[in-house]
User: Fold this.
Amino acid sequence: MSLHKSTVPKTVLCAIVDCLILSSFLPNIGFDLMNKVNAQLGLQTNVSFIGVNMKGLYTSTIHKNLSSIPFPDNYYSDSFKLIKSAGMNHIRYVLYWQAYEKDPLSFIAELQTVASLADKWGLHVIYDNHQFHTSSWLDPVRGSGFLPSLFNDNMSYPFGSGGSPGYPSAIKWWTNWWNHTITDNRGIDGWTLQIGFLKKVIETVENHSSTLGYEILNEPQIQSADQWEKIGKYNTFVANELRKITNKTLVFDMTIPVDFHNLKINMTLGNIAKLLPANKNNIVFKISLYGIPTAGSYAEQKINLLSELTKITGVPLYIGEWNDVSREERINVEGKTVKEINQEISDLNQTDADIMIKKFKDIGVWGWAFWNWSYLPDSSPDFNLITVTLNGHMATTKYFDILKHVVANT
Assistant:
């Protein structure tokens, strides 16, 4: 979600050059990488999967829940009914590895409930292994995802030292993660531990008709250009292990930050292509878009560039998160000017939502999921599709009406 509204003429030139380079050594890649879910090649004429991101209770609880908002009775049945009645067919279900560690029995029981009710309502679910700001170890207020036991080197990653891109602890930790040197406090390999968690999820929901697939890792961080290939090795390693127990769709994420001007990262099409796994059968490439792709905007440059990647590689594009946010400049820990969300003024109107959906259709995305459906309120107003009262009553917001309208006109 690190977005900067700026033009990037050099990126366009790089994209053209990279297209020529990639096409020279991947001339036929688009013809033998059929997505088994859709059985489609190339650009799609229809968006197959349209829906929302959803958070639950035990699957999403990281910190001690201090909220006075109760988890609604029949939360999933009522939510799925509303989502289906609005013409949508897809859920990107946000879950956290940390939440599993906190209460594995309740975590698995909730997954079983989600999968069974999604079967009933005819929904297609992607189970998203989510992280935000790396872990609650590095960011006790907003961070979630990786287990605190993977940060046992307290000298390198002090508690509360910052988990978003640019923080020294995050830079060190993600660099070691891609170097495959992170272990937990027992000395067990981090990649192996994460695969074990993903296999638990798969074993729980694999045989449900509603299960569309699994997202390996939400928005991983990249710190330098030499890590593109290392991320590809990680994705290949994980994919090969998971393919032993599932043939369903695997989702691989674009890294953050998405910074066209950062020469240290060198975000060209040729480099980005390196992060995809070697086996591209039945995979999709996920990006997030938190801005309106108007002519010349950062959001348009971003989505155009990354959709070119999917054309070259034959891997469908999935807009796994989208919304609109307002940003303001601030100075980060490195002394650089960055833009962060201004939650008080962030909003989404019908016109802008229509522009987003039309763009998705025009470039032929595989699917999209709006952010967000959660029983807990978010400080960004347009991140709330529902509200829940103190007595547990659930009601939709104006943003649900906006979403319902764009679906009806799609």
